[in-house]
Amino acid sequence: MTENKSPQNVELDNELYDEDDEDTMLGRYLTFQVANEQYGIPIRHVTEIIGMQSITEVPELPDYVRGVINLRGQVIPVIDVRMRFGIGTREYDDRTCIVVVDLDGTQVGLIVDRVAEVLDIPDDDVAPPPTVHKGEAHRFVSGMGKVGDDVKILLDVGRMLCKDDFEHMSAGVTEASVS
Fold first, then answer.
1. Distances (CA, A) of 107 to 8, 102, 114, 122, 166
2. What is the model's pLDDT at position 6?
C-alpha cells in the first residue's frame, strides 16, 4: 500500500508469511506515520490493515485503548498509538487506519495516522535506539532503521502492551463480547 492511496482492507499475502519459513519476514517492516514521525513494526506481527471502523468503548480500560471493534465476528481491542506515545489526539480522517497485529495469539488493532509501505531493512542498517530518554514512548523503540537518507523508528510491538494491559484488555473484550 503506498502513501498516495486511501486505506482499504488489506490482507497480507499468505505466501510471504508461511509460518514454517519465518526467514522470509526477517528484516521486513510495515512503516506508518504517527504525527510527524515514521515508524516501523516487524511484518511478522501484522495480519491486516483496515480502514477506521466504529469503535465500541469499554469502561475501565487505559485511555489509549479506544475500545473494541468487531472484525468478521472477532472482537479486537484497539489502541490509539498517538495516545500510547503521549503525543495527543487528532481527528481521524480518510488516511487513518487500523493495523491489526498478532501478539502471542492475541489480535490487537493499532490506530495510526497513515500506512506508508513495507520496507526491507537489513540488520546491518538497524542502529540501537538513542540513549537519551525522552518520555514513555522511548521504551517501545527497538532500533533505528536507516533507509537511504531517512530514519525509521522501529518499534517492539510486544512492549507497547505490558502484561497488565493484556489482562485488562482480555477482561474488557470478554465483557464486551457477552454484552
1. 19, 5, 20, 27, 11
2. 43
